[in-house]
Amino acid sequence: MFWADRLRRGLFPPVCLVCGQDGRAEIDCCAGCEPELPVLAAQCARCGIELETRVDLCGRCAMALPAFHATWPGFAYTGVVERLVRRFKFHGDLAAGRLLADLLARRLVELEAPRPQLIVPVPLHVRRGLRRGFNQSALISRDLSRWFGGLPWLEALRRTRPTATQSELPADQRSGNVRGAFELKRLPPATTHVALVDDVMTTGSTLNECARVLLQAGVKRVEVWVVARA
């Protein structure tokens, strides 16, 4: 835990951001609420879509293989998790963002997700970033890096043009909306394994386009770390 977190927790007793009762020293979620968070019953290992039983490739992935190689969703995008994401993303509740990163990190450990060489957040266009005041995926990446002992993270991608908000578009228009919307800024030499980080994954079109750019740059394996899968 970092000195700023230690100072904050020393001045303010930990409170569970889910129920408002006493929290725990290591995370702002009590021992009663964490087991109740909505995890996926089973999933497609490739795209992370929730299924009744785990499969390596769902029907959709078998027909059109995603550019990324695996998806590790922390939770389903519903209930408490959805509310925390919205508090963070649309209301600037940075404490909710830190909690989501902590919860995702704990789930990644539980799921035994392999460690990449580099964490890369999905970028926002500069205009949207200025309006919001932060890139939620970058803040989650920063906190994951700290949680995993300084695992490198880098804003390696740039969004080259503004795009319509994916959640406001029909599913069949989302891929075209982000096609060609990303480019590489920089990448450390010999980077072959990357984890792409985002807050919510719906159709996966944005993550797929980001993964495609990374693969073209020479990355061999791209996995997705996402707080919630819709």
Topology of helices and strands:
Layout: H1 3-11, H2 59-63, E1 70-76, H3 79-91, H4 94-111, E2 118-121, H5 126-132, H6 136-147, E3 157-159, H7 171-178, E4 182-184, E5 193-201, H8 205-216, E6 221-229
Parallel strand pairs: 1-6, 2-5, 5-6
Antiparallel strand pairs: 3-4
Helix pairs in contact: 3-4, 4-6
Question: Could you give a quick summary of the protein structure above?
Answer:
The protein is α/β, with parallel strands linked by helices and 230 residues long. The chain is built from 8 helices and 6 strands; from the N terminus they run ααβααβααβαββαβ.
Task: Give a description of the structure.
The protein is an alpha/beta fold and 230 residues long. The chain has a single domain, classed as Rossmann fold (3-Layer(aba) Sandwich), CATH 3.40.50. The protein has 8 helices and 6 strands; from the N terminus they run H-H-E-H-H-E-H-H-E-H-E-E-H-E. The strands form 2 sheets. Strands 1-6-5-2 form a 4-stranded parallel beta sheet. Helix 8 links the parallel strand 5 and strand 6. Helix 3 packs across helix 4 and helix 4 crosses helix 6. The longest helix is centred in the middle third of the chain and has 18 residues. The radius of gyration is 17 Å and the shape is globular. The mean pLDDT is 91.
Helix percent band:
25-40%
CATH C-level class is Alpha Beta
CATH architecture: 3-Layer(aba) Sandwich
Number of strands: 6
The number of helices is 8
At the third CATH level, what is the topology name?
Rossmann fold
**Element-level helix/strand string:** HHEHHEHHEHEEHE
